[in-house]
Amino acid sequence: MTLVKEGVSRRTAILDAAEAEFSQHGYDAVSLRAIAKAAKVDVALANYHFGRKHELFEQTFQRRADILNDWRLDALDAAIKAAAPAPVSVHAIIDAYLRPLMTGDHLSDPGWRNYYALVGYVNSSTTWGGQLMTKSFDPAIKRFIEALKDAMPDASDAAIYWGYHCLSGALTLA
Question: Which of 120, 10, 7, 140 minimizes the C-alpha distance to 71?
């Protein structure tokens, strides 16, 4: 599958190709050579920009995680501001967490569909799950956990933690 579009940098073409290949085949079944071929670049260029395959995998995963985190945090900030001076509701917190994934122009972009499949793969992987999900999403998730604690001051930390993980797990499986 060729993903290179006119006007796209070679670095972006490599990331797009890596995203498509990893989301379809998983980490182990993909080579840098296959990614370079899909991106229509020499394998040395992929290595130059990203280093080893695991570094390309991590950067491929992280680039959209940063965007998704920004969308979610903007939605959470807006919900908190709208609720002030009262604490934001649990419903509004969950909406801020979910709505950015499920609405918007990005849903028609094949790259985002590949990315969401990649998140499912990573989150269910014993090799990558804990490492990449934690690195990529925990800083933003901590803000959501704090908002939930404010919204439910009588709930235990464990209840909030496990409630979040149930929501996140269900989302990933969907």
Answer: 140
